[in-house]
Specification:
Layout lengths: L21 H10 L5 H8 L16 E2 L6 E2 L6 E6 H6 L15 E5 L6 E5 L2 E2 L11 E5 L2 E2 L13 E8 L13 E7 L7 E9 L4 E12 L2 E12 L3 E3 L5 E2 L2 E12 L5 E12 L7 E2 L3 E2 L7 E2 L7 E2 L5 H7 L8 E2 L1 E13 L3 E19 L9 E19 L5 E21 L9 E21 L5 E23 L4 E13 L3 E11 L2 E12 L20 E14 L3 E23 L4 E24 L4 E16 L1 E3 L1 H7 L4 E3 L10 E13 L2 E12 L18 E12 L4 E8 L7 E7 L2 E6 L4 E9 L1
Parallel strand pairs: 7-10, 14-21
Antiparallel strand pairs: 1-2, 3-9, 4-5, 5-6, 7-8, 9-10, 11-12, 11-44, 12-13, 13-16, 14-15, 16-17, 17-23, 18-43, 19-20, 22-24, 23-24, 24-25, 25-26, 26-27, 27-28, 28-29, 28-30, 30-31, 31-32, 32-33, 33-34, 34-35, 35-38, 36-37, 38-39, 39-40, 40-41, 41-44, 42-43
């Protein structure tokens, strides 16, 4: 089958201002270059009565640059999300962040609990466990280098910060796409406690609570816990058994010791247990089982339908009951020690972290009772990291930061596949390997304000990484057949990353910046069911050279507009490609490097305090990109020809959604001694065109919009509140992703309309 025709987007780097969003961005950036005091005075002149004057916008604090500062004073595209915003918008896990952040998409690999992040079009599709993400993820300053580590509960958070663009000169691991920082709520001196319970559709029950206060004269503590239960909204088309229930619990404890005024020691311990169901896949095309010799399973028309089935022999092999559906039995722990000393001129910070994850996950990737691609992951991950930072005190003309980072990342994986009903294979296979990475880096960044309005920023990161693959092999379990003998591999990466930026602050409420960033993402290994030696070559690190023009403006006291235009020059982009395998008579996955590609786009975020009772939040994002130099296997042409066909994909569009948008309108008022707060929100994602390197147009994911709403009531002065919430109120049928494995063409369907009630107590 030939790859389908590419779509001619009306976006060009030289014509980006012609796009609908960009028409508003450039004028906004020009506004940022002039004083806004006159705009403020004009806006307020008609409000003589102070009780009628809109409340001022809040100054959101972030630590995006590893110092506490106002988000509007940071020359980086960053979206801070507070705990209340996350709760009202229905964000319960990392997958939900894409609904509230411009340019972010998070997809579940084959409906699993493993997130695949893409930010501003920079992403990495890989269903294996062993490779790092283009988007760095941090929990309380500790890096989580493997995407599968980031699927935990979001609870008792102070905020989430999403940084867009290459990172690496300020902290932690390097990345090309950006960074997501999860910041927990800290222990309090006063005694506080809280409890929140949700009950919703399909029997879903969620609960979380905390206690916080003084343990001893200089010791503060906090204990928080959360659980998600129930919510099974899918059903097996054969047995009628339900699927999709959550069984996920987590616990966090913190101790904050301050032996002296300048010293502090924060201990954070986390533990979780996740025995939730997976998202059952659905067939979007009929499945001819056993190579056409078995029964044909029709495509799924019911949005809640899924299918699964495990052979009893395969279930015994992996140690589960054959009646179990897709799901996981994961558990993990982490411990973080943060030591700080606040000196007169600089603050010293030490962050020590140890994280462990034990993953057992079952997936039925053929969405049927046939044994064509039933998958089980048994994975153990251990990460130990140490970071040392020295940060100058704020307020001086020259502000600087420098640090060291070191980590050891170890992974052992066993990946089982049941191919018993696949002609030419006819057995269960096991892929096993180990991986270790040793990382050492030095980084520094400084900013000098050479006039009250102008500031220059420079940063550099030098990193050494030794990544090793141990004993990668694949073979049939019974009968015992080895496809590829145990293979070792390794490579060393020494690539610098850096930053150079110019910032202009005409007033205290406006900032314009022009930045040049170089980001690096680690290389890695393809660790799939290896039957072809061509899969075994490691793929190289990718490099992004980014140019960004941004502006942040507070117009008066009630309108905030942040905009950004960016252009990325991508070198050695890591792309999921294929090789044609003569054993299975089809394409099998291999991660390759595209020599050159480009991405450009624009973003806008708006916060408008319309009246003291009404505020509006809105974001838009537009982006597009093309391969400029990329020669690789054409999977669809290879299937049609029955042999490997290689061609140039230069000029082909990258598979990233062109548009995304989202927003919320909140109206608060008092009536009858009760404070009411109502919110309606939406999110929209444009068509997700499948990669033409592998897929035909039938794998494109259609555009969709989701609408949520909440109504909250709280009696004045009471610690209790009651909230009604609804998600996907239009009951939109939408897909999260499409893919194929062997002969099955599958999709992961999004959740239908749900509603519920939330009771909250905090004092």
């Amino acid at each position: 089958m030939k790859a389908g025709p590419t779509r001619a987007y009306p976006i060009r780097p030289v014509l980006i201002v012609s796009t609908p969003v960009a028409r508003y961005l450039v004028p906004t950036m020009l506004v940022a270059m002039v004083p806004v005091s006159s705009l403020s005075a004009q806006s307020d002149s008609t409000q003589s009565d102070s009780t009628r004057r809109p409340a001022a916008l809040s100054a959101v604090r972030v630590t995006a640059q590893r110092r506490d500062e106002a988000a509007q004073r940071v020359g980086i595209a960053v979206t801070p999300l507070t705990a209340s915003q996350l709760a009202e918008r229905g964000v319960q896990g990392s997958f939900d962040l894409q609904r509230v952040t411009p340019g972010l998409e998070v997809e579940p690999a084959f409906g699993s609990g493993q997130p695949q992040y893409r930010l501003r079009g920079l992403g990495f599709n890989d269903y294996a466990t062993n490779n790092s993400s283009t988007v760095g993820v941090y929990a309380d300053d500790a890096a989580l280098p493997f995407p599968v580590q980031t699927q935990g509960l979001l609870f008792d958070l102070e905020r989430v910060e999403v940084l867009r663009g290459p990172q690496g000169t300020l902290y932690g691991r390097n990345s090309t796409g950006g960074a997501i920082n999860f910041v927990s709520r800290r222990p309090t001196a006063a005694f506080r406690r809280g409890l929140q319970v949700d009950a919703g559709s399909f029997g879903a029950v969620n609960a979380e609570g905390f206690v916080s206060g003084r343990v001893a004269p200089r010791l503060l503590g906090r204990l928080s816990a959360a659980t998600q239960q129930g919510g099974a909204w899918q059903s097996d088309r054969v047995t009628g058994r339900s699927l999709g229930a959550r069984d996920h619990s987590a616990l966090r404890g913190q101790l904050d010791w301050r032996p002296q005024d300048r010293w502090s020691l924060l201990l954070i311990g986390n533990a979780f247990r996740d025995h939730s169901d997976g998202t059952g896949l659905a067939l979007f095309a009929p499945l001819n089982t056993r190579g056409g010799e078995g029964p044909t399973v029709p495509a799924d028309g019911d949005r809640r339908a899924t299918g699964w089935g495990l052979r009893p022999a395969f279930a015994r092999l992996v140690g589960i009951d054959s009646t179990e559906g897709p799901g996981r039995r994961n558990s993990g722990t982490s411990a973080t020690v943060q030591l700080r000393h606040a000196g007169n001129r600089a603050t010293f910070t030490s962050i020590t972290n140890a994280t462990r994850l034990d993953r057992f996950e079952v997936g039925d990737w053929d969405a049927s009772a046939s044994a064509e691609s039933d998958e089980v992951f048994r994975t153990r991950i251990g990460v130990v990291s140490q970071e040392l930072r020295l940060t100058s005190s704020g307020g001086a003309a020259f502000e600087w930061q420098g640090g060291l980072y070191a980590a050891r990342e170890q992974l052992d994986d066993n990946f089982y596949s049941d191919f018993t009903d696949v002609p030419g294979l006819g057995a269960a296979a096991l892929t096993t390997y180990g991986q270790r990475a040793d990382v050492a880096a030095v980084f520094a960044q400084g900013g000098y304000a050479f006039t009250p309005m102008w500031r220059v920023v420079g940063g550099l990161r030098l990193e050494y990484e030794h990544r090793r693959l141990n004993g990668l092999t694949t073979g049939f379990v019974n009968p015992a057949v080895t496809f590829v003998p145990p293979t070792d591999g390794g490579f060393i990466t020494r690539l610098p990353s850096g930053k150079l930026a110019l910032e202009y602050r005409p007033t205290g409420t406006a900032l314009t910046y022009l930045s040049f960033d170089r980001g690096v993402k680690s290389g890695g290994f393809t660790a799939y069911n290896t039957t072809n030696p061509a899969q075994l070559a490691n793929f190289a690190p990718e490099i992004v050279n980014a140019v960004e023009l941004g502006a942040k403006v507070d117009v008066g006291t009630r309108l905030r507009v942040n905009t950004a235009l960016y252009h990325y020059d991508y070198r050695d982009q890591q792309v999921l490609s294929t090789v044609y395998d003569q054993v299975s008579r089809g394409p099998i996955g291999r991660i390759a490097n595209a020599a050159r590609s480009r991405i450009h786009g624009a973003e806008m975020e708006l916060v408008w305090q319309v009246t003291p009772k009404l505020d509006v939040q809105q974001f838009w994002a537009v982006r597009a990109g093309r391969y400029r130099e990329f020669n690789t296997v054409d999977a669809q042409a290879s299937i049609a020809a029955g042999r490997e066909v290689t061609r140039s994909f230069a000029g082909t569009w990258l598979n990233i959604p062109r548009y995304s948008a989202g927003g919320a309108a909140t109206y608060a008022f008092d009536a009858g001694g009760v404070q009411w707060r109502t919110q309606a929100s939406y999110s929209y994602r444009d068509r997700q065109e499948a990669s033409r390197v592998i897929f035909s147009p039938e794998y494109d994911v259609a555009p969709y919009a989701l609408i949520n709403a909440t109504i909250t009531a709280q009696r004045v002065g009471s610690p209790w509140s009651l909230q009604l919430f609804g998600r996907n109120l239009a009951d939109r049928r939408y897909e999260l992703t499409r893919n194929f494995f062997i002969n099955a063409r599958v999709t992961a369907i999004g959740q239908p309309a749900t509603a519920g009630v939330r009771i909250r107590y905090e004092r």
